[in-house]
Amino acid sequence: MFTLSLIAAPAAANLDADLPQGIAARWGGSEPRWLASGIAAEFDIAAIPDDIDQVWSDLQVIGIDMVVQPAEGRRKKVLLADMDSTMIDQECIDELADFAGVGPRVADITARAMNGELDFHEALIERVSLLAGLDEGVIQKVLDSRITLASGGRELVATMRAHGAHAALVSGGFTAFTAAVADQLGFDEHRANVLLADGGVLTGHVALPVLGREAKIEALERITERFGLSPQDVMAVGDGANDLGMIQLAGSGVALHAKPAVAAQARIRINHGDLTALLYLQGYAQADFVTADPAA
Length: 296
Known about the structure:
Number of strands: 12
Distance between the termini: 38 Å
Mean pLDDT: 96
CATH class of the largest domain: Alpha Beta
Strand content: 15-25%
Number of domains: 2
Shape: elongated
C-alpha cells in the first residue's frame, strides 16, 4: 500500500477541494484525508500508476507537489537537516563574502558547488580563503541582520521532537552559524565546519577534515547506530549536491527547493511547499503542529 500526498505552498493554499478527489478516483484510491484546508491532502493507493510522472508534471505547473511513499513507516524517528538554503533562507558564506567585498565571486562558486559542478571540498577551501582578514565580529553582524529562518522550520523541528524524534542540523557551513540556528529552532545537536581565526580575524582556513557529503552520510549512520535505528527511520532534507548522499540513504530523503541536478536524483521533491511539507508527508495534520520547542 502507498500513500499519495498533495501539498501546496501555505501562502498560496491553492489545493482545490476537488483535485484530491479526482486523482483518487482516477487511480482507485481511498477517500482523501485532508491534513490542512487548501494546503495538504492524502489518500492511499494499491500500486504506483503508470502515468504518475505526467500527472506530477501537470501538478507542478499549478504549484502543487505530489509525493508517493510506502504507507508503512512514514513517521520518522530522526530528522537530519541541512542548514543553508534549507533551514535558513541564506547561504552564510555568501553573506560573509559580501562583507569581505568578494560577494559575487563567492556566490558563483557556491551555486556551482551546490549544483554538483564543483568538488565541495575544493570549493569550500577556495571560498574560505577569500575571507582571510575579515573581522570575526562580522559573523554576529550577519546573524543579527541577514539570517532568516525558513518558513515552517520551527514547526517541523518542534513537532517531530514532541513525538520523540531526534533532530540534528548537519551543515557544510560553519559552527558559528549552526550553533545559533540549532538553538533558535530547538535541534538536539549540530555539526558543521569550524572557521579558524587568529586575534579576532579570520585566517582564510577551516579546521580539517572538511564536513561535506561523506560526513553527512557518516552523521546519519552514527546517529541511527546510537539510537539503535536504521536509515529507514530517518527523514533527511537538503537542497545541494553535498546533501545527496544522506537524501538517498534516508528512508525519506527530501530535496527541498533543490538545485536541478539534486532534484533529478531525489525520490521526494518539494518545489512549492515549505518545511511543513515534511510533516504532511509523515501524516501529521496542521492541527498536530507544535510551534514551541518541547524541551523549552
